[in-house]
Design brief:
single chain, 97 residues, alpha+beta, five-stranded antiparallel beta sheet, 2 helices, 5 strands, globular
């Protein structure tokens, strides 16, 4: 699945969303979270240590973000993992020390 279509720039809702993910995670935001009514998270869905966050709006679910546990992934490994699977995030936020 090609995720390389053009995307709008991150906005204030993206920054707000990133501050609400787990402290021990790197985050790759794939879509603007401001357009969703509800968020749902599924841990270890695509890989061990990778949580998928789905946004729900109008009875449709869309992959919103991927969260990578810092004990399993470095920021460089996150970038490689995303690239190997064709994901082009709006924003990648590595866990700061």
């Amino acid at each position: 699945m090609d995720k390389s279509h053009s995307r709008p720039a991150p906005d204030e809702s993206t920054a707000h969303f990133v501050h609400h993910v787990a402290v021990e995670e790197h985050v790759a935001v794939l879509e603007n979270p401001g357009r969703f009514d509800l968020l749902r998270r599924k841990d270890d869905l695509l890989d061990e240590g990778v949580a998928a966050v789905f946004g729900l709006a109008d009875a449709e679910a869309e992959l919103l973000a991927l969260c990578f546990h810092v004990r399993k992934f470095t920021p460089a490994e996150v970038a490689t993992w995303l690239a190997e699977r064709g994901f082009v995030p709006l924003l990648c936020v590595p866990k700061s020390a």
